[in-house]
Specification:
about 80 residues; Arc Repressor Mutant, subunit A; mainly alpha; two-stranded antiparallel ribbon
Length: about 80
């Protein structure tokens, strides 16, 4: 799966934050819900425009972003 099929960033939508295509649902919102213990099913019930694939795309996107970050060593 290519997360670019599900996620877009457009300056005119949510100030350019990454969102699920065709929605105003941000990647950050989905990640927050997952970190709070929500299941994919819980999120889809709350946001019916989402699919399991769009949630998996969020995880793939987050993984890609994190893997390209530079970590700062603790002092």
């Amino acid at each position: 799966m290519d997360y670019k099929d599900y996620i877009e960033s457009n300056a005119d939508i949510m100030l350019g934050k990454p969102v699920i295509k065709g929605t105003r649902i941000t990647v950050a919102l989905i990640l927050r819900k997952l970190s709070e213990g929500a299941s994919s099913e819980d999120i889809i019930l709350a946001y019916p425009n989402l699919t399991h694939n769009s949630i998996w795309a969020v995880l793939a996107y987050a993984s890609d972003v994190v893997s390209n970050e530079s970590l700062i060593a603790a002092a």
